[in-house]
Amino acid sequence: MSTTAPAPATKGLEGVIAGETEICNVEQSALIYRGYEIADLAANATFEEVAFLLLEGHKPSPEELKRFTAELVDARDIPEEAKSFLTHSANLVKNHSGVPMDLLRTAVSICGHLDPDCQDNSADANLRKAKRILAQVPTIIGHMQNNIDGRDFVAHDPDLSHAGNLLWMMTGEKPTAEAEKVMDVSLILYAEHDYNASTFTSRVIAGTLADMHGAMTGAIAALKGPLHGGANEAAMDMLSEIRNDIGPDNDTGKITDWMHKAFEEKRKLMGFGHRVYKSGDHRAPILHGLGRKAAEARGPEFVRLFELGETVQNIMETDKKIYPNVDFPCGMTYFTMGIPVPQYTPIFVASRVSGWAAHIMEQHANNRLIRPRAAYSGPETRKWNG
């Protein structure tokens, strides 16, 4: 019997169009959320407005934004079972191999067990769940960090924005307006990015008609990887390694020698390159500018970090024609804000759940099971006996 052979395999599905979406368009020249360009949103919108845009499909009116913000504030508390898990989780980080992304993944899953709409995939239930997850993730991150630091849990502040409350819950200190703004813009920049690895994971899971929390949990697992969400942590680790190796003076010759040695050893330098943005990620200069301004306000040590990063960036662009993605300035910016490096990717989650939820809802609304073919490269047919 004859069969039609699948099309030739494309490694990593590069260049393959895997579906349609009304949510986001990623091109070299622009990043668009439902018709709005990312620089426009970063300059003129708040994260709550962007989250509403992604989840409810249009720019909110003042009344809609007020209602949406109140819904998020009301949903910030997490179930006692999730609090209990986080209370007993510090040792998983301190004495074992657990990392914050693992704890966040598990806590979101626990919240799913206890969500009143957990098994309901209707549009209304999915939207309610999306808002609860969006509201609860900063609480999970804050409780987690307080526990790791040996402090009591901090209650959310209903008067703070999503970004401000995230910083408050992690530190127990009210953020400055400047810090709140930097965090808010970073969340906007990270909110959505079409069929990236974690979003595609969420759509594959949702395509089986699994529930919102299940798809979110899978997306968090995908985002943990250092080639995806973990790149901002790895970028900061790389800069810390350079500083430790060359000393504090930012000698350009020493930085160049370090980079050339890394090139010779074929090290993968994180925070650079992108599958789509071959000539530069236009989110990166937005966050770099905000981060450097924050560094100048904090003092010379943090300015030197950005100067180091700028030298590294120039060498990569000159020698390799490889440009920074948004994760490179994110690492420096979050470090300047005093955020522990292992929490960089969980903060990414605090933003990206808005995009994931939009894709999960879109998948459920017009579903077809995602089931690609594979190009077989194994042995020819053979007999078991003989």
Search tags:
Citrate Synthase, domain 1, 3 strands, three-stranded antiparallel sheet, mainly alpha, 386 residues, Cytochrome p450-Terp, domain 2, 2 domains, 2% strand, 17 helices
Overall pLDDT: 93
Radius of gyration: 22 Å
Shape estimate: globular
Instruction: Write the CATH architecture name of the largest domain.
Output: Orthogonal Bundle
Question: Would you identify the CATH H-level superfamily of the largest domain?
Answer: Citrate Synthase, domain 1
Strand order of the largest sheet: 1-2-3
Any idea of the CATH topology of the largest domain? Citrate Synthase, domain 1
Number of helices: 17
Oligomer: single chain
How many domains make up the 3D coordinates? Answer: 2
Strand content: under 5%
Biggest sheet descriptor: 3 strands, antiparallel
| Poorly predicted sequence stretches spanning 5 or more consecutive residues | none
Please report the distance between the alpha carbons of the first and last residues.
Answer: 24 Å
Which structural class should the secondary elements be placed in? mainly alpha
Question: Helical proportion?
Answer: 55-70%
Number of strands: 3
Q: What is the C-level CATH assignment of the largest domain?
A: Mainly Alpha
What's the helix and strand layout?
Layout: E1 24-26, E2 31-33, E3 36-37, H1 38-44, H2 47-56, H3 62-74, H4 80-87, H5 90-94, H6 100-114, H7 123-148, H8 162-171, H9 177-190, H10 197-207, H11 212-223, H12 231-246, H13 252-264, H14 283-298, H15 300-320, H16 327-336, H17 344-365
Antiparallel strand pairs: 1-2, 2-3
Helix pairs in contact: 1-9, 2-17, 3-7, 4-6, 4-7, 6-7, 6-11, 7-8, 7-17, 8-9, 9-14, 9-17, 10-11, 10-17, 11-17, 12-16, 13-15, 14-15, 14-16, 15-16
